[in-house]
Amino acid sequence: MRKGQLIDVRKKDEFNQGHINGSRNIPLGMLIKSISKLRNDQPVYLVCASDKVSKRATMLLVSKNFTNIYALKGGITSWGKPLKTKN
Q1: Taking the complete model, does pTM exceed 0.90, yes or no?
Q2: Fold annotation for 5-78
């Protein structure tokens, strides 16, 4: 994504089973350590399995002064398009 960052906060094995094309996998447990990889000047779009983990990730990013954060309501299960798999 050129005008935003699509971050999948699920575990690596879940991500590999199917993810939105163009998303980066940064599991919730690694988000704090990887915060420097995110740009604060671009929107952050978060996705997880059902939207519970992405809500926690949102709170974490807000605590680190990110302001333009969006979570996919319903998580990956609500994504109506084909998912990319990692071989």
Answers
A1: yes
A2: Oxidized Rhodanese; domain 1 (3.40.250)
